[in-house]
Amino acid sequence: RSMAAEERRHRRIAAEELRLMIWNRKCMAREERRQRARHRLEKLCEQRTRRRMASEDVLSRVWQSCKSPAECMAFIVRQMLAEWQRLEDRVRSRERHQQDILAKAAAVALRKQKHEQRLAREKRWKQLNRRDVTMDEILGNRKRTS
Predict the structure, then answer these.
(1) 50 neighbors 41 (Cβ within 8 angstroms)
(2) pTM of the full predicted structure?
(3) Are 46 and 54 in contact (CB under 8 A)?
(4) Nearest alpha carbon to residue 135 among 126, 144, 146
(5) DSSP string computed for 95-117
(6) CB 127 within 8 A of CB 137
(7) pLDDT(145) > 70
(8) Helix (H, G, I), strand (E, B) or coil at 141
(9) Residue 83: its H or E element
(10) If 0-12 CB within 10 Å is exposed, 13-18 middle and 19+ buried, where does residue 75 land?
(11) How far apart are CA 24 and CA 18, in angstroms?
C-alpha cells in the first residue's frame, strides 16, 4: 500500500511540475510578445520624432536664410511643388508598371492561344492524312447534296 501511495504522490508531483512548466512557458511567451510590441512602438515613435525634427531643421534654415517672408513662402511653395511632382512621377511609374504587367499577360495568353490553335491544326492534319480516312471524315458533319 505505501508503495502505491508513494507512486501516486510522485505522479501527482510530476503532473504539477509539468503544469507549472507549461504555465511558465505561456507567461514567458506572452511577456516576450508584449516586449516586442513595445519595442516596435518605440521605434515608430523615434522615427516619427526624427522626421519631425528634420522637418523643423529645414524650416528653421529656410526662415534664417530668407530675406523676406515672401521669399520664404516662395521657397516653401517650390518645395511643395517638387514633392507633388515626385508623387505624380511615382503614380505614373506605378501605372506604367501595371500596364506592362497587363501587356505581358496578354502576350502570354495570345502565345498560348496560338500554340493551342497550331496543335489543333496539326491534330486535324494527322487525322485527315491517315491511310484509312473516309470521305465522310474529310467532309466532317456537312450534309452532302445528292
Answers:
(1) no
(2) 0.41
(3) no
(4) 144
(5) HHHHHHHHHHHHHHHHHHHHHHH
(6) yes
(7) no
(8) coil
(9) helix 69-128
(10) middle
(11) 10
d(CA 107, CA 65): 56
CA-CA distances (angstroms) from residue 27 to 10, 17, 20, 22, 79? 26, 15, 10, 9, 51
pLDDT in tens, 57-91: 887 887 778 788 888 888 889 889 999 999 999 99
Scan for cell 505624380, then name that residue. 88
Q: What is the pLDDT of residues 83-113, one digit of tens each?
A: 999 999 999 999 999 999 999 999 999 999 9
Q: Which three cell numbers stand for residue 136?
A: 465522310
* Alpha carbon distance 136, 146 (integer Å): 14
Give CA–CA dist 127/133, Å, rounded: 7
**Does the CA dihedral 3-6-12-18 come out positive or negative?**
negative
Q: How far apart are CA 16 and CA 23, in angstroms?
A: 10
Q: How many CB atoms lie within 10 A of CB 133?
A: 11
Q: Which cell numbers hold the place of 61?
A: 534654415
Radius of gyration over every alpha carbon of the chain, rounded to an integer in angstroms: 39
